[in-house]
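Quick note —
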Amino acid sequence: MVLATISSKAQFYRHNTHGQHPPPNTPPPITAVNDCPPAVKKILRLMHERSLFGQDCIQLYFTHLIRNCRSDNTIRSYQTTLLAFIGFLKAKGKHHIETTTRDDISAYVEYEQDRGLCANSVNTQSRLVYSFLQFLADRDVIHPNVLHRKIRVKVPETLPRAIDPEDIQLLLAAITHVRDRAMILLLLRTGMRIGELLHTRLDDVNLTERRIEIFEAQKNRVGRVVYISDDALSALKQSLAQRDRISDYVFYGHRGRPLSYEAARTMFTKHLAKAGLVHKRYTLHALRHTFASELLNAGMRLECLQQLLGHSSIEMTRRYARLTDNTRREEYFKAMRIIESEGIRGHYRRDCSLPQVS
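Predicted structure written out below.
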């Protein structure tokens, strides 16, 4: 179904003040969309099986995402969320995407909260829904008022959780497997995301210049370069020397394909148990947090760390400064030494000339 047809229907729905709708349109059969990408055909087939409406809008939107080179993971995330959203609308008695209102979005957010999703997950779901609806509003399919004052759930500003230095020593001491040690040290010394490391190919690694080129970051699709420390380089060379099959990937699994995230997580949990650290619930991503915290403690500038981590905004990197601000720590203990040794003389009073505490 072409966009002009959808747009003309949207005009009808938008100006219908009696709450009446034309007869529900029959979704185009799957055989009529042979010119769309295979991933879109799969989504349309799922919608057909679940008797979901809006196949025309979904076809246009996902074709748009694929043409804009969105990753497979992104496509899957949108698929899960948008099909769930349309299923929610259907359960509410809706028959057309074009009749979506702000109250529908609010109800969906409340529904996700009632299901027990954390605030971050709810906001992620609503962000994907809003992206879809913005696409439709830009093409006059839905009324732009639907997007007015977007609904967001307040998210607690938690600090990134790094692994304690003593626990890092215990963990590394417990790892005797050559490949596993190389994986853990690379995550710890480069700050790479686990997905980025698992999809690193041999051609991406330059042992002479001690660098790994990440041509497309897993999260924001922005390329960057990370560097390899002495201990990580030594572990990586040992691991490469023991490879027993031909594979394009540095860390591979079945039939030379990239090692799966599940296998990497199982490996990490096994070594945490051996080190007696399972009760602390560290994750593979905590190695990235540890990398950032240690570099800031060593005096690296935020702007430099931002590039190494691949953050699109320095505000993301600034979270680690709250965790590892040595200047604030030194100022605190300096003041406490004065208080403990000399005490405070005089009376407490309000002094308007004092600088405001930030």
